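Fold it.
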Amino acid sequence: MKTTLKIGIAAVLLVSSTLAVKAQSSSPSASNKQEFRLSVGPDAGIPLGDLSNGYNWNFGGSIQADIPVIHNLYVTVNAGYNNFFVKKNQADVADKNMQLIPVKAGLKYFPGGSIFYVQGEAGASFLANKSDLGAEKSTAFVYAPQVGVLLKLAGKNYIDLGVRFESTAAFYDGGNTNNILGLRAAYSFGL
């Protein structure tokens, strides 16, 4: 886990410093006004790697705040809930769904002021049903790079669609990471 944590932190720092330099060098446009935004919506995904041996898919939801920093760059704060649906009759996992509460922070950057963005987040994921699963840890490091699009509706309303790879460190000593390919479809509004 220490190696995963170091790699995740290094990746977030590298991406954030690169994006900050690019954001400072772009010229602001009057039609691209920065605003504080909140978004809420469902999250769904499919487990990857070893996690797919015991679980079919996941579904949950999240709320996210996008806080403007400089032109085209936002700090994000995200909290959510994900339920991983167990495959029936699996000998290697408890016959219980896995319930995670990820809490992450990161950066969201819109290259050239477009509707497309790249986002990177890291934080902690809490295992809500540790005793049901017989897990040894209740908290693990999580990181999630994402790409997406912010589609304007009317006024300060948007649809935020994103695809992400999310990796959570193991909840068992000597266990494997919990990786998913996820989709977030959220209603976003400016304040």
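Residues 44 and 59 are 4 Å apart (CA to CA).
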